[in-house]
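Run log, item B.
One chain of 183 residues. Sequence copied directly from the ordering sheet:
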Amino acid sequence: MNFTRLKKFYYLKFVRIKGAPKDIAWGACIGALIGTMPVMPFHTIGIIAVCVMTRTSTMAGLFSSLVISNPLTYIPIYYLSMVIGNFITPYKVNWETIHTILNVIISEHGFKQSVSMLANQGTEIIIVMLSGGMVLALPTAVFWYFFTLRLFLKIREKRRERHILRAKKKTIKQKKEIHDPIR
């Protein structure tokens, strides 16, 4: 499959999301926040739950999470969460432990084994990763909110201008038909 065509398809799918621009932007913000957090098995469940509770766009949340947290960005997100978490907490976690957790999560073992692996690691790793992830996720979510809000406001403005232009053309065509009885 052509990558450019696939990229355009998902862009159009995202741009055509229905709803108010603020609701879409908040949904995207929630998706970016949860998508940047190192809680891999719970992304979709968390995004759907929070978006439904806040009545924001669930599709925008899921799509922005997919853009931010995908197979190309798993390792950098977990690594940055570990580095930031080691810096801001008194605990220290090494990369080998995180790499082992990532291998279990990404592998085909399933949701139950991923959750049990995370639960067995202890509170130190969870505290380090979640605190580092939160520090990483907050600026990402704020940026994503303003980016998507501006994007969807521009999209709505262009749609409104196109609609006005079509209405003017239709009016002009109707006036020509009225004044031109020969047709």
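Observations after the first pass:
- The two ends are 50 Å apart (CA to CA).
- Helices lie at 3-15, 21-36, 43-54, 58-68, 74-88, 95-106, 111-120, 123-179.
Flagged for discussion on Thursday.
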